[in-house]
Amino acid sequence: xETPAPNPTAIATKWAVxxxxxxxxxxxxxxxxxIDQNSSVKYVGYLPFIAFCFLAQKEYKDQLGGFITFGQAxxxxxxxxxxxGLLLAVFIYLYLAILSPEMLTKAMEQQQTAMADxxxxxxxxxxxxxxxxxxxxxxxxxxxxxxxxIFGCIVSLIGAAILKKERTAYDVIDETPNDPTV
Length: 182
Prior knowledge:
single chain, mainly alpha, elongated
């Protein structure tokens, strides 16, 4: 009797939910510690994403018996990136629109300063800020979903290249029964 093939969607979903929880903790830790949004410390948030992508691919490889093609290894990584990006986008929207709207206001203030430094007129700045205040949370969510998927595809390609291990002629599974009476 054959065992059913492992489900890459279930593995990717599990790791995407874990990533979401870790991202929420990191987001609120940065807010609690009052770390500037433009600080280089923000790149710490990429480490769990990369680690969980590799772990999703590794778990799928282990469930396949230790052998995996490049395409099979890319599959759970891509799905993880897609699900993780969508879940994170929902959180970012809720975070900026409902949970911590002051963070959107703080970002808009930083943008106002940056636009003034670029020499934009006050009328242009006011229009940009009005649009940002109105649609900033949804723009943030969409940008998060797209950028997470693109970054995840790159990480998945690298992970697939590292984890790829195809069967050779010497890796034949012994299908003889263990019963000596046969």
